Amino acid sequence: MLIEIWSDVVCPFCYIGKRKLEKALSKFTQISNPQIVWKSYQLMPDLDPKDYGLDLHQYLSTKYHISIDEAKEMNQRVSSSAASYGLRYNLENAVVVNTLDAHRLSHLAAKHGKQNEMEEILFRSYFTDGVDIAQHVNLIKLGTEIGINQAEIEGLFSGVEFSQEVEMDIYESRQIGIRGVPFFLFERKYTISGAQDDIVFNQTLEKILQEGNLQNE
Question: How far apart are CA 36 and CA 24, in angstroms?
Fold first, then answer.
């Protein structure tokens, strides 16, 4: 089964959506080896890559024209939702950054067949560990965690490799009509927009199996 996921590694609902998908897949033993492809999407594409250390509460307050307290309450609700899927969010430590280079690293990991692992580490690092995932030194460390050669990652960040692939993912999202993430595309035919209820994931997988003709059987 081919599953393509448009997401951003600073999107709290994308990490939750990843867990919802994994939970649904675990119920269908017929789907033994799903091909999961992560597609780049940027929630804050205009954020200057050199702007480090922006406070998440303040950022949300400014973006949505709400008070700091309201922003904190918003983050607490998201954290509670994440906790119900076994995720620990420490959003008070989250650093708002441009994610272009994190997406480039994800594409490099895909080249090594380790993209899903890389996405998990990027999510965990941002939401749980408070890591600045725009800093190259941090991304290099995270990439080596899954066995990518350090020199190869350093080479990635010394140039523009995979920048075009990130742009193409984003362009494709516009062509499809994606307005937010996470966005799941199954078998290039069935879609789930947002981290919807578990039952939606289950029903979608059931429908695909009933119709058969999986792309990577």
Answer: 14
Global model pTM greater than 0.90: yes
Per the CB < 8 A criterion, the answer to whether 35 and 205 are in contact is no
Quote the CA–CA distance of 133 and 142 in Å, as a whole number. Answer: 9
> CA–CA separation, 187 vs 16, rounded Å?
21
Using one digit for the tens of pLDDT, what is the confidence trace for 42-83? Answer: 998 888 765 656 789 988 998 899 999 999 999 999 999 999
DSSP-derived secondary structure letter, 133: T
Contact 198, 171 (CB under 8 A): no
Closest of 100, 107, 108 to residue 38, by C-alpha = 107
Backbone angles phi, psi at 109, to 5 degrees: -65, -35
CB contact set of 178 (below 8 Å; sequence gap of 6+): 6, 41, 193
Which pLDDT band holds residue 29 (cuts at 50, 70, 90)?
confident
